[in-house]
């Protein structure tokens, strides 16, 4: 028989939803047309803190087409208790309730929603509201807020407190080599391409369908039920396509609150879409200050690691990130200590943005590591190898796998690191100083209980389904590959359905766990289908698979089941279903990792690692930085789809370039307001900023980390990248910039 | 965005008549006006769409020079063979700005009349004298890293965002306008203005006047020129500082010279005295530094933008050396020549 090239785990497959996306057929939350729909336009608060004294909506109501102006005074009642408003992130505090009362907590807070029959009428009327405020003293300045920093007694559940070891203070005091530095990261706003939007279809029979921009449809479903008094079974949330999110869709944002309030009030369908400017009125990456003290012996072996960090939060919720633990885990210093606090300011609550905690903490720590390498007179890569830890140095546990040494080696070889001249300012080409820098990345390899279904029809078409979301990461494609791999079907015969609360249970998409978790669930569901197929094969005349007792005895390939011991004996999948008179086989399974997984969770650390090498060219006189080359060598276990995985790393690296050079939300202290709230003035890298990026996935077999051996790649690409760039800028110029982003003003003396 | 009356006249007299109400805005490419309307910064009662007017030609002027229609797009201007050959400085400046998509839509007349990118001007919930006279200036003492270091007033520290206009200033172009009072020409130097006590006036157009064309004089400085732009990323960002230089070198000496700065003032910034001081001299770093000193005399930072002063000084020196050497800055190779 002909052998068919099997498409499966490890095949670089183009996005199965690519055509839908580039032809505009893929629908996003703001694009669903529902009948008899009202358009809601939110009115932002002009002040940063205080009370709404009066709202004059007479002019707005005069606009033809306007049907209602919703404010805290006339909004429908919802749940009273704060706990009813908790979302999947469960950040301690009082969750924000749009139009909840007359309090203004941050500039740009929605204080009214104008509802009209047309978007144009609603938008115009929204500009006509006359709102009077009683303003109170406020602060948006992180440096000022540090005076109020504190360690919250109730911690965010995802927070990992630093575990101190040895006597870091004494070891630092005695260390012959010392580094002490203060590092800073500016506030960043996520700004995915798709703005947050909700189209809520009010069916009129008590049921609603909510097309929402979110990373977790079932999280939004539970939230709307709990906060707005719906029965969960009456709420269906759909997010089939998500135009990027980077964590901004982990929490239900205020537009879904407003749409739901308005729909309940009007008993009608409603759409609310944020403007780009309004994308700066909710979640953002916290600003961070971290002081690092490193002690080392004369050879450069670390003897003490001390990290103390503060990140920003709001006055109404205590958001926390894992900032200080990364250096403590990654390096073998016998003594280490960390402390962490948060500082409140009058903004919306900061929360998770791509690799929350590590993108900040590991990056800033890796700049300090670079400084220490120079102090010790050791090559920065050698310095990291000298302090390499085979185990998780903070928790004292072994890793399920850690191929960071291989990542350093393969990355360095690809980059040509051995040709580096050690002295700063020692490499140049024309008017440009050339610098080479290195940094390390580290992230969690997480797994979360997830269910999936697989439905095989008699025509050989397979549909797999799971409530997880594809936020642009390639989940549709990855799950198609897992299904193709398990049942030996070509991808064209497989449809993946995602992003719908009515599908089998999945957690919110985030933390790089989706591929590992939903992939495992899809594999289990497909295996259950496979078992039924094997039984059905018994009905085929002549029983070609006689002797096959379990899935271990057969191979699924090219739409057929082949006997392992004699591949000339096979049964077609369609053939087996017809023989057994099965019109359809449908199975649902839940991947939980099992008991062995739980035990492993307790005994071992599970992380991805990366080594980033970077070349910059800096105009000596003018300070213009060009990042001409980056090699990112990633150890992330098994790679399901090398093509979309590479794209994830590329995207992470580009975002890291933004963190290093561009992204910074600028505040006006007097007004307590973000000022560069548009994409002309809030800069992310443009194509011209991005030159050569090389991605390497080093071999890291790890059957223990998750059922598929997959660690996830959504976030590791950004971690450490900004440090590699900052370190390369130092190597080029001799200027050590400890505050990101490194804008041109910091390089012009 | 407020409701407005929309009109699309076929001929210039009709457009001028429609634009004379004092509440009208002319719509050309729309790349700035529509944004401003969405943000409630511009609230015209009437929008006069001038895209049907016959202002899309580039023609020769008697005695040399080119006349570029106001509705010729930025892209069509930059890629016009005559403009490329005779006015490469103008091409370079246009291609340093915006993105290909925007340049395909944006027109030359619109480029002249684009508004500042000051954060406060764009946010109607903050004070701005340019947007609402008498409100005060939020940028003074506020977030002002992109603001002016030259020619600012206590009323306004905004900058003009155009790249193209910096080149037009160096080329000493002439702006042709038509209005209720008929046709007139405005030397480029007099077209944009400093904020003074009337920061809401970006330029010297009278109410209802419409730009119809831009005249380029015969001298294009094709042999010795450059447009050097420094910004927060390598493309698609407004200039922190930009420098346009046109130079004529004869027998090793500077025979003629124009220097204009972008991103530093309410209009493209020129100091003819600084240019005059260089004429007849042999190009040298010392001479360039003296020119920079002259151009930036009286420069004042606002705090966040203090860095623009040394940055501008260095950029001027580099731009002059690029022009003198005949090695203009490329707008595709991001390495600074």
Can you walk me through this structure?
The complex is a heterodimer of chains A (about 750) and B (about 325). In chain A, the strands form 9 sheets. Chain A has a 7-stranded mixed sheet with strand order 3-5-1-12-9-10-11, with helices on both faces. The model of chain A has no long low-confidence stretch (mean pLDDT about 95). The radius of gyration of chain A is 27 Å and the shape is globular. With about 750 residues, chain A is of the alpha+beta class. By secondary structure, chain B is α+β, with helices and mostly antiparallel strands. Chain B has 13 helices and 11 strands. In chain B, the strands form 3 sheets. Chain B has a 5-stranded antiparallel sheet. Chain B is globular. The relative contact order of chain B is 0.13. The mean pLDDT of chain B is about 95. The chains are: A alpha+beta (about 750), B alpha+beta (about 325). Chains A and B meet through helix 3 and strand 30 of A and helix 8 and helix 13 of B.
From the spread of the alpha carbons, the general shape of chain B counts as: globular
Mean pLDDT of chain A: 97
Largest β sheet strand count, sense and barrel closure of chain A: 7 strands, mixed
- CATH class term of the domain at 224-324 in chain B: Alpha Beta
**Number of discrete helical segments of chain A:** 18
Strand arrangement within the widest β-sheet of chain B reads 4-5-8-6-7
- Any low-confidence stretches of chain B, pLDDT <50, length ≥5? none
Major sheet attributes of chain B: 5 strands, antiparallel
Low-pLDDT segments of chain A = none
CATH topology of the largest domain in chain A: Aldehyde Oxidoreductase, domain 4
Cα radius of gyration of chain A in angstroms: 27 Å
Q: Rounded to an integer, what's the Rg of chain B over CA atoms?
A: 19 Å
Proportion of helical residues of chain A: 25-40%
End-to-end span of chain B in angstroms? 44 Å
Distance between the termini of chain A: 73 Å
Describe the strand arrangement of the main beta sheet of chain A, using strand numbers.
Answer: 3-5-1-12-9-10-11
CATH homologous superfamily heading of the largest domain in chain A: Aldehyde oxidase/xanthine dehydrogenase, molybdopterin binding domain
Beta content of chain A comes to 25-35%
Quickly give the CATH architecture of the domain at 224-324 in chain B: 2-Layer Sandwich
